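Structure tokens please, single chain.
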Amino acid sequence: MPGRIGGKIEDQPQLSAVLLQFARTLVTDFSIQDILDRLVGHVVELIPVTGAGVLLLDTDADEHFVSASDKRILRIESLQLELQEGPCILGYKTGEAVMVPDLASEERFPHFSAGARKAGIGAIFSFPLRLEGERFGALDLYSTSPLQLSENDLDAAQVLADVAAVYLFNARARADARERNEQLHHESLHDPLTGLPNRSLLEDRFKHAAAKSQRSKLASAVLYVDLDHFKAVNDTFGHHTGDLLLVEVVKRLQALLRPGDTLARLAGDEFVILCEEVGHPREVDEIADRVVASVAAPFTIGANEIRIGASVGIASASGRQPSALESLRSSDAAMYLAKSEGGGRHRTADAKSRKVAKRRADIERDLEAAIHGDQLEVLYQPIVDAPTGRWEGVETLLRWNHPRAGAVRPELIVAAAERTGLSTTLGGWVLRRACRDMQRWRDSSPHPPAAFAVNVSARDVMDSDLCSLVMQCLEQSGLAPETLCIELTENALLEDLPSSLAALERLRQLGVRLALDDFGTGYSSLRYLKHFPVDMLKIDQSFITDVGDDIVDAAIVGAIVELAHTLELTVVAEGVEGPRQLERVRALNCDLVQGYFFSTPLSAEVIGARDFGARPGRFSRGRRGAAGSALLPVPQASPARAADPTTP
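Here you go.
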């Protein structure tokens, strides 16, 4: 360490004692200001000067640290900072000690010197606070009269300055680490977009609410808020506008809260309001009414006027205090009830909604075991050539007969997988099972299905491992890539269009074919269709149901078919359940059909025993082509929808 006193520091008992105290400071949690205050106090005890001051100059301009042995020295230190002139400023900039034994003859600091002399100062000595080439500020010694310090005093002052620099460095490191930890802790408990509490912090607030309810005997309530039509905003205006809209929604919701209420963001466009100490259920209904009305009012985002809505589910925690998870599930189920009734309203959890919530909880809890325990089932529905009625291929359909919840609809299984993070696991299981069955059909039947289709969820589309999984399944089963058709929904692709397009191109490079499922239900089908590198369009069954009798539906289907054929795409009509529908979609030139008129979903064993014919047709091609099979008799199924015991 620079500086010496008579050759050995240990020969100066006073300085050794001061350094020992500083050493104790190093291992404590003293703040920067505490260290500076102790430094100036020890200096005036150790060195024959009138006073001492210190400035830290390397921090932000609005946060300089200043310490002084008395008020007059504090004013003089602050004067140097204000004028940016004086021995302290020069010592900080040069890293060298600055000696002014007689201020009356000093010419380097004209403005500061005048002020210091007016305050009764005759001499100043400034010593930089420095460590390994880094400077923090300076230690200043003051005398009311001209003064010459001894070599020992000068060395002692610089030693104190250098030692203090070490301690200040450690104190600042502690402060920075504490600030970082606090920031990380805050980020772990708050949503980064809105700054609202997240699920973790909300659960903690639930605990406090439960404790207060026990003391006050007043119940708490949970409002689960889900925005209506929010996805349309993202699809139409982009995710940036969607984020800006969420921030504006939060501002409106916060304005509705009572003191002590908590607004949290769970995910996406889902929010929770925790109302503590509710005197009467009517209070919660009034808050829910205000939430619905507030969100229904138009928003102005940039140049766009945007209208959305809110569906609100309420769970009251009267009587036995439920857990946070139970309350969230009950309010979530009530919210879904409000949304199923058209949205823009609120509903309170009752026995029906709680039963729904319990069923969803059972499904989510048991799904992973069902996947790994082969409790799920895969069925196959034929895809049929429209003009001939010839079976061409099959679509893979997922089924699950839960031991307590009963038969679970596929969309509920997929939703549960996404909520529990099992989407990729579930998708992989279905793909492997379908490839295995297709391989068995190839081995056992002379004329198996020409191709098979597998649905892929929105999350799977964005999974970078999807292509690797597809390649692995095809290689293990020995199937040609063109026998597999990946079905995706338009809404799934629009979640992140650039990433979706890149994923589709990777799949196309593998040789698999791509189908756009549920076409016509998205918000921007025609706008984006030309960008999607797909081979096939599947018209949603909502347009097929009344196509035989509704001129509007028939016009829509006809337009879709004409557009798809212009783009050389194959068209599949989904949901054909009667001869009138089949007759109409044939007249509208649909290439393929699918529905209960031809067959219910069938087991792999039944499909394996069916002769699909030797000549491949439209479903086995990547682009629309002419029919390649002889006419076969159309199955004479009952016009009524065939019963499917596996459908809930």
